[in-house]
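User: Predict the complex.
Assistant: Input components as received:
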Amino acid sequence: MERARQDPAAFAGQMLGDFVARFPPQEVPAALRHEAKRALLNVFGCALAVARDPAVDAAVRVLRPLSGPGAATAIGRPERLDPMAASFVNAMAANLLDYDDTHLDTVIHPTAPVAPPVLALAEARGLSGAAALHAFLLGAEVACRLGNAVSPGHYARGWHITATCGVFGAAAACARLLGLSGAQSWSALGIAASQAAGVVESLPSAAKNVGVGNAARNGLFAALLAQQGYAAAPAAIEGPLGWARAAGDEPRLAALGDGLGERWEFGKNTYKPYPCGIVLHPVIDACLALRAAHGLAPDAVAGVRVRGHPLLLARGDRAVENERDARVSIHHSVAVALVLGAAGVREFSPAAVADPAIAAFRAKVRAEADDSLPVGAAAVTVETTGGAALQAVVTHARGSRERPLSDRELEAKFEENARLGGFGGRDVARLIAQVWRLDEADSVRPLLRALSAPRS
Amino acid sequence: MERARQDPAAFAGQMLGDFVARFPPQEVPAALRHEAKRALLNVFGCALAVARDPAVDAAVRVLRPLSGPGAATAIGRPERLDPMAASFVNAMAANLLDYDDTHLDTVIHPTAPVAPPVLALAEARGLSGAAALHAFLLGAEVACRLGNAVSPGHYARGWHITATCGVFGAAAACARLLGLSGAQSWSALGIAASQAAGVVESLPSAAKNVGVGNAARNGLFAALLAQQGYAAAPAAIEGPLGWARAAGDEPRLAALGDGLGERWEFGKNTYKPYPCGIVLHPVIDACLALRAAHGLAPDAVAGVRVRGHPLLLARGDRAVENERDARVSIHHSVAVALVLGAAGVREFSPAAVADPAIAAFRAKVRAEADDSLPVGAAAVTVETTGGAALQAVVTHARGSRERPLSDRELEAKFEENARLGGFGGRDVARLIAQVWRLDEADSVRPLLRALSAPRS
């Protein structure tokens, strides 16, 4: 381990394997353990919101006939699946709306690929909440660190980093949960290197879901194979013909070990208050603030001018034909925030996109680049029919690292998502309580059972 | 389709999807259809030979509890698995000894990842031998063409091309077998782009098996998802952030369409007569010829001098500690060929490696580079204790494209492999006949059932 830390370029896999196998729960700072629960609460809601989405239906239709005994929950659904199949379905659902969490330095969404296989395995074997939570945390940390090591070249080449690094995180987490040795965990990570896949080109398509789902499913597979004696090459990650160089050109392998176990990448995790492109979040914040302050009726608005860093326009200024467009549209984001006073899952649904009032309002919005505004900031000016100009400037959006969502805000987000998944008030409150007390649960089973399809 | 052929760089996926969905069986030359059967006979033997290998046992131990209803055969074994799990186990077994077929231009072993999912799906659904054979052929062609498009940079970067291109071939083949449309087949290929994984660094390890097994399993998965409506980005393969550029730097996309359906890459497929590195094959041929001509007793041999192109030494001159070393060792290959008069699976087994007589003979072998010999050639000189020097030179090894294995030689290879898998004479003869007549079979089931564990 010491040798590995001193030369991570030569011993990256071994170092991470030891970390995964040995890092003790009692050395995890309380705030970080709480962050892991926040991440789970958030991701459960994201999966519940789309539990009956056609994309999830289709995945279940394919996997159910191929699934072994249903030891694991498909979140928000009546079906039970084998742990690998459940990992796939839950991971792709968790990430489907891009409403899950983000490690901003790498743009990895760490919880979707890592938490589902941990929970499916823990459910199948009746393991404790504390064990699952610790395994998840270590796995998510491994995913983010691998992302750091290959960023920014990896994503820029076309690799979908949530999927490609997610499989390492899933393998690490499952290795820990299975109680694998350092050497076996090292093997699991090396086997993950033979399974890292997913391309950026396909992000606006269902193939994205496949990449994220596979990361979860194959990470679990890697750990199970390592437990049965499968090994990878010692330098499967860091070697001259290993994954980091193949997919990352000139990886910064030092990022894997730097402060490992002391400084936590997962501590930087952020949560979205709105299910749309993160650059749009300050725009929505500004619109909601203006609406709250001035009670603007749509007819009273003559026009809306949005200014932001050029990145905002590059990512968000486009025509809206469907809900995928809407989720990256300045015009749609402004319209729903000002007209409906909300920007949740429903406001980015096909129905909202097709709503004539929203479509008409989108046409009132103009976007302009403004170099004087920093990345992450936006200024919104509403011009009223009465001739007034009302302005709001947001420098740090809700949910950014500077303004993280509070626990209560995450609960509210979960409540809305759970309602979309058909869960009523009492069930929702119980689920929230179960997540906050997950580390006290002797088994994850009651929580997972409660996350299956609601009693209707 | 025409537009696509004229500009494969822009329409690669669409072109391949149309090819897979539409190319008619009656346009396949008879020799090529026969080649597909040769490939199957060969790969079945390779899988049978290792059906009880610990690596196959371990994969079955992991997958069986996660497997759905056992609709498909695990070759040479009593277990039945769901088609995705069977695809994994059979593909990894087929490739385990590196004794399967080779498309030499790309070093892809095309049959291992492509045939198992086709056969598992055909078995599960009771489809005909002709349908399976045609689907397999189209899929293998797609795999080889993708390999051409990204070679040689892809492998040189560290991507294990059998796995990474194999998943496209498996997806294509399963798409055809499922009767998907051109658009759906295009989607299946695009989904495969989100699943292409496997690193060269791990070739001397079990992680290699995982990559090859996953190619088969995930190719089937891609086709099943496409059938349920999943799509990828239109340019998932050829786009600026698609797979070919991410993994191949500057792909030669023209190689995908050039002569498609007229000139067949799969027609170049070759089969190994010996389960070891292909550069060692002319050395073994020469030794067997010398032994046959001179009846050399081991004690009568004072020394053996092997000369070959520097590539032979680069790949084959190494110490032998285990069977993996033996399979790439000039010294071991010479020893078994001259001492035992054979170079089959048993001669590269751990028992043969540890045999004191073989170990002693290995020490008698010297290897020298000789620039005057072309790649693929070798000269062997046996110096006898009586002072004679007996020489044999082989320019093209058995099994090379210039000296392909005959059907009878492939049958003999199959017979030996099947015996290792526990099959007796009558069963072996029937299996061979079933493969040669596969295109006349109303269902692949009788053949697959016959390939399951032998009656003992």
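The CA atoms of residues 74 and 86 of chain A lie 6 Å apart.
Let me know if you want any component modeled separately.
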